[in-house]
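Let us begin with a simple case.
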Amino acid sequence: MSRLLTTLLLYRAGYEVGKYISLEAKIAKNKGAYYDALELSQTGWHEEKDDPTPFIKYLLGTIISAYRDFEDRMEIISPSSEDTVRKAVESRIGKFTKREITELCPNISASTVERNLRAMVNNGELEKQGAGKSTVYIRRFLTYTITLIPLRTKGAAKLLRFAALCWMKNLTEWADFGSSTGCRTAHINRCSRS
């Protein structure tokens, strides 16, 4: 009940993020920290030595986190449903479900999200594992190997490394960038659609 009243007081004070991001769900995900902060705030209450600071810090952190989640969702929204779903997929790391993408795209129906995910699987951008409710998706990556010319100075190596990074703007991860037999070799994982 107290969390509901907190949300109501936030609405009245002009903090309407609770309309778009569930503060209750954010608190429920981290119940331990919620009750720890509450307990710390009540310590010494009978002796009139209680300090509400831990709970206030926790609540403010939750509100800030909700605004960040809201901002992330708003960045995902774009004119076409295909672009919106693609941006939501690109924001995910590892395995994800259709439901997670649907939550990130509140303005798109579940069937449209499913259609766009199916198209991305057919294009080779995603890998689908499982069936039914246990279906998960994984972004596909291709690995490119670039062997750079032998270098004699550290400055030239840094410059060439910087040039390679600029050239591969959309790379997501450097798996290895080391020396072998005097050459610099970079193994780059890059999304297959780039």
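The second case is a distinct protein. As before, the sequence precedes its structure tokens.
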Amino acid sequence: MIDRAAPNPNRDRHRHVHQPPQRRCNFTQPNIGPVLHHPQIQQQEYTQKKWYLQTVSQRRRRNGAMVRNEVLGDSQRLMVWQHRYPIATYLVAIAVTNYSMYTQYAPLVGRSKPLPVVNYVFPQFRTDAERETRDVLPMIRLFDSLFVPYPFEKEKYGHAQFTWGGGMEHQTMSFMVNFSYDLMAHELAHQWFGDMVTCGTWQDLWLNEGFATYLTVMTTEYLKSKEEANGKLRGMRSNICGNDGGSVFPTSYRDWETVNVCECV
């Protein structure tokens, strides 16, 4: 997860539900419309279905695969999404707006079918997004070949643009404020480290973020150059050492209390 302030013209027309670990369901925008299932997520072993009503012109994005899409009269559309994998509650999310959708494909080593990468972007950003999201395809192939295969191969990977700053690694569908190279690498890395394997407590969150940060640099080293990767490492070290308090450890998610655990030397 990366959080940065990011004003966006779609803010008033975009609705999303984001689930941080300290609150099982947080409606960041009210009046999302009728949801035909209680928003409290029920964790199930392999089958999870959610039913949603929305206006005909809107597109709704969430985890898993869409198994039903039906127009009900002139003003409502029924969409049913199903996720077939175990999932932590904070990785469940939905978003709805007038998305523009396109699919790209990531070829995977040893598989006859490529992995679909489904992108939902704000219409005014589609031209740039189609060019930028192509960079995630070799990243998927890289991680898939270095670690275990992509954990949710029976469904998809994808991006949904949203107005919250930075990105969030929702399972099979990362929410993104933009499609910068490092942000895409970071959120993709979480599908392995954070989603497939999830930290046990809030205090262990550094494991999720540590692996994602490391793999962002490793992506640059493998797919660009070692020199550029080393430059990023030097920048990170300079930034960390520039903080007088050194590294910190969260002791409470409620008020973001922290304690100093080491000094940069």
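Residues 225-262 form one domain. The helical segments are 126-132, 136-146, 181-192, 205-223, 226-241.
Keep these points in mind for the review questions at the end of the chapter.
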